[in-house]
Amino acid sequence: MSFCNPELNCAKCARLTAFRTENRRKYPFYHNAPVPSFGPIEAELLVVGMAPGLHGANQTGRPFTNDGAGDTLMLALKKFGFASGEYKKRKDDGFELVNARITNTVRCVPPQNKIKSDEVRNCRPFLKAETDDMKNLKVVLVIGKDAHDGFLEAMGLKKGDFKFAHGAEHFLPVRSLVLVDSYHTSRYNISTKRLTPEMFEAVIKKIREML
After folding, report:
1. Is 37 a member of any domain?
2. Residue among 61, 50, 153 at smallest CA distance from 105
């Protein structure tokens, strides 16, 4: 039995549970529940984000789907052979991941897109279980510093030992995993050119070569 994903009415985090209840009233046709991981458990690559977006994964029920961050991520994954099909920003678009899986450190959408440390801690067992279940896992790509910190904490590692930097590679003392950092693929980072599509594609290309 896998414990990778919380139950649909998980109540571990009072703030997130209240926000979910509010959103179920405001957006009754949204997913409005913990967002399950996407992609095969047999994959060698795990992509870890921070949390679902209100009108992105929280709407569609699939990580990084229907928001600017997902547009950049999904297209780059397909370009380098980690996905097939056409990404149409819907859970039922037929887009599939190949040798890759996507998840978040926190599975429920947070207010103002801001997560809290206790919420990361409450969701940590799901990320740890997912990593344990991925028997072929070799590379973990973290999207943003929050995801970087959350993954290290889930692995019981000290953040200070592995400094976040875009494009950095960290060789972890856990199953010989390689942790690769990227700035977040948010629409804001792309529009301000803190991260360009070319910069992000260079990271995905590097991972493709590793695998």
Report:
1. yes
2. 50
At 1 the pLDDT is: 39
In the chain, the number of structural domains is 1
Instruction: Output the CA torsion 158→161→166→168 (10° steps).
Output: -120
Give the domain CATH number at 124: 3.40.470.10
Domain assignment of residue 104, yes or no: yes
In Å, how far are 51, 64, 157, 175 from 57, measured between CA atoms?
9, 6, 28, 30
Task: Output the furthest CA–CA distance in the chain (Å, rounded).
Answer: 46
Q: What is the pLDDT of residues 115-124, one digit of tens each?
A: 999 999 999 9
Decide: helix, strand or coil at residue 8: coil
Confidence tier at 154 by pLDDT (50, 70, 90): very high
**Residue 183 belongs to what domain range?**
14-210
**Type and span of the H or E element at 135:** none
